[in-house]
């Protein structure tokens, strides 16, 4: 049975195989040979399941044009996705499931192992979790004495360019969790991960508050669509 909003092609009405069926099989075969598809074709593979009776290539291209990339499409807020003609609740639900699956996959790569020995996995997780968020978020990875992850918590959400952060609250929560080390993370919705002067001051305030209590701040990572920045790598801490 067709889903609401599905529009059969001309061939459907004549009892013939729609033209896009052959395209779907060819695209699946190309994917099976290796994930080398451009973003809009990879998005088509997802939309095949959401919209089984329609040519979804124009819709996939419209989504990429609107949001910029595959990652930005699945991370886009539902209300903005709904503004694209042809996108309904079923498609939005499938895209959000895919987004959550990506976060879980990235999180699984950093669980149960010392984070400082799997730094690329930490970066991948942070980017998956918040690089494409439309608002700034400040999160903390709380670590034990073996640098294993105790908790991953969003401590604050703000506007497009500011999130309030209170060093006392950071230290208080660290003590509650018996954390001995932290990795600070926040995103820049602008896409540019370059630290601001406010970011630098805030980081130094947290380091100063945590140090006397034996809590080490390993790094502060800023993520954005255009990459990431490490305070330690930039020698800012």
TrEMBL record:
Official protein name in the record: MPN domain-containing protein
CDD domains: MPN_DUF2466
Entry similarity comment: Belongs to the UPF0758 family.
Domain MPN: 115-237
Source organism of this protein record: Methylobacterium isbiliense
Top-level lineage group: Bacteria
Keyword Repeat: no
Region ranges (Disordered): 1-20
Keyword terms, alphabetized: Hydrolase, Metal-binding, Metalloprotease, Protease, Zinc
Keyword Metal-binding: yes
A UniProt-annotated Pfam family: RadC
């Amino acid at each position: 049975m067709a889903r609401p909003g599905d529009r059969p092609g001309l061939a459907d009405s004549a009892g013939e195989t729609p033209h896009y069926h052959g395209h779907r099989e060819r695209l699946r075969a190309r994917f099976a040979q290796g994930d080398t598809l451009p973003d809009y074709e990879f998005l088509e593979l997802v939309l095949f399941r959401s919209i089984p009776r329609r040519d979804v290539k124009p819709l996939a291209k419209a989504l990429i044009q609107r949001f910029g990339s595959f990652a930005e499409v699945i991370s886009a807020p539902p209300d903005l996705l709904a503004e694209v003609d042809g996108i309904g609740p079923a498609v939005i639900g499938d895209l959000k499931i895919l987004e959550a699956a990506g976060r879980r996959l990235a999180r699984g790569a950093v669980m149960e192992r010392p984070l400082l020995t799997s730094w690329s996995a930490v970066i991948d997780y942070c980017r998956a979790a918040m690089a494409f968020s439309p608002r700034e978020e400040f999160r903390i990875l709380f670590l034990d004495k073996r640098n294993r992850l105790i908790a991953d918590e969003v401590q604050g959400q703000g506007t497009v360019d500011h999130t309030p952060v209170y060093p006392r609250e950071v230290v208080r929560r660290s003590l509650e969790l018996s954390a001995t080390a932290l990795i600070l993370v926040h995103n820049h919705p602008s896409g540019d991960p370059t630290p601001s002067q406010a970011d630098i001051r805030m980081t130094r305030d947290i380091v100063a508050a945590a140090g006397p209590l034996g809590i080490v701040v390993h790094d502060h990572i800023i993520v954005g669509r255009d990459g990431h920045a490490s305070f330690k790598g930039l020698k800012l801490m």
